[in-house]
Amino acid sequence: MVTLAAPAKSDRRRPPRPGTGPGDRAVARPGLGWALPATLFFALFAIVPLLLVAVLSFVSWGGIGAPEFVGLDNWVTLLHDPVMIKSLWLSVLLTALGVVTQTPLSILLGVWAAGPQRNRAVLSAIFFVPLLLSATAVSVLWRALLDPNFGVPAQARWLFGDGNLLGSRTGAIAVLVLVGTWQFTPLHTLIYQGATRAIPEVLYQAAAIDGAGTVRQFFHITLPQLRNSVITSVILMVVGGLTTFDTVLILTQGGPGTETTISAFYMYQKAFKSFDFGAGAAIALLLVIVATMISLVVVRLSGYDRMASPKEGL
């Protein structure tokens, strides 16, 4: 009788998981204690000041003496203040113009800068110089360049007329948009440059095999891959646009008249020129609410909140 031998068991074993082998210590996830320093820092320098501003918006205080509780008086006064309503709409307008101008320009420059050529790296480094300057330095620089007496407009009156670009509402708004675009486009370009370099090269290779040219690859591969980066960039533009202050302070002083008095600058006037810190706090809290609402709308309309994976939609 012939007996069949049982098949020998394989000596191959699965490698032990990290931290479970002999002599290894069990690896546990970081506890809540690791997040405690960052949480305390955020609470101390963000949450607590925001709560204090909220409390200050319900009092009348000139900086000296004890604050006097006035309830909703500051809010009611602001809602009936035509300068406040105008400043809020102007802030939204400048923010929208910044998004419309900076987003396409940043995407194109970011995709171009992501190329491997050495000259692109050199030009990108030069282009990022405005990002290293403070908003105050940039505003002073453009104030000198646009001076109607000895600046660029004075040398090209055939193009700029009397040269006083900041003397009209349209000219002042155009200058603010131009300066903001010149200063902050490099930041968003850097975001898109990094995101473009993270796109798998195999997608472009497959598209090239299928006969897709550069333009089709851009619209059907690059732009969909940059979706999350666009959302992040737009939210940063919204928050930055609504809180812009120093550029208006140095370039236009809110003028001519109140044509460029945005909400952040009006808050400064109320608090530090009129010494009405309660009204200034109310304006600051209103800006926080408006910026949060716009950011939530952007996230909602983009579908970012419904993504099951960070790679969904690519």
From TrEMBL:
Membrane topology: Multi-pass membrane protein
Region (Disordered): 1-25
SUPFAM superfamilies per UniProt: MetI-like
Subcellular location: Cell membrane
Annotated Pfam families: BPD_transp_1
Family (UniProt): Belongs to the binding-protein-dependent transport system permease family.
Protein name (database record): Sugar ABC transporter permease
